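Box 3.1 — From sequence to structure: CHASE domain-containing protein
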Amino acid sequence: MDDFDRIARCLIQRFGGITSLQLAPFGAVSMVYPMSAPGMDNQKIIGRNDFFDPVHADHAMEAIDSKEPRLSGPRVLLQCNKETGILVRLAIFSKAAPRFLPNSAWRFPNGTTLVQRCQELGRAEAGHGQAAAAAPVCSFPGHVVDGSQTHFWGFATMVTLISDLLRPLHFMEKSSDEEEQFDFEILDKTPHPSLGPRGVIKRYFPTDPSELAFDDAVSIPINVAELDVEWVMNLKPQGGWPLLTEGFWSRFLVMLISVFLLLIACTVMVFYNVRGAYKRLERLEEFKRRKRLAVVESAVEDIDRVRFPMCVMRLEDFEALGKLISHEDARSQALLNFLDTPEALEDRFTSSTPPS
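Predicted structure (token representation):
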């Protein structure tokens, strides 16, 4: 977590189209990059608990239940000056995470405070055998990794504004030549309530909105079943459809290709971000596995050594003494043979030379 800002900055610069990245240990947002930017103030969401916030609670539970990245939106984001954006939330499970979430509290806008005392439940279970099902938001087991049970650690969330998603396609940039400019709107067929009844995700028109109607616009469906995306783009030239002129269809074809590029960019962006996070977790688990293996190998090598070595004296040396002497005297006279490994014992008592 100490390198969160540096890692988040690298991901945003490398993949593009990402507005911000969030980290929410045990559901409480504690780290966001960037914290602020033009038109964005992420300080507002620090401390937000995704389990209790009614705007995010259902999506948070979906991410935990599915154990896969879950897309939410498009919807209006308050921390981004009420711009429309998309959230992709991934639940992280770890063997290092505690079974029960820490105690937490959430204050609703109406002044009501909800307190979740998960640690008390854990102590009660340990002492009296009570079932954790008494508080379903206190413990979330994950997959079993290397024979060990993992538990929920927190959320990693990616936020992408629609304007940032469209920027690489140069939809809203004015051309330096006399090429035709287009007005467009993108609608969601299953809109979030914050988008209004029509589900307007993004609308671009330099002219007065009251003078603009998309009744004669071309409708282009944008569907990605894997992400539950069902959008429609309505597109028309600024000022209405002109008579067919030379080069019109080529420009229109470029616009259609740009729409498909938008679709591909959205899919690739989500895939590589999630894949990168998964690979980093895999490398971390492999490092931990090698450390455990090194400890076991060291212990096995230690077992192969005799804890209390056997000391023997040649029969001829013993008879030459003619009396009993102390162990220290025998050792100082170099009369003792130390057998401190299994191999030495085997060689001594299985060789053709009679044991002393």
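Summary of the box: The chain is about 35% helix and 25% strand.
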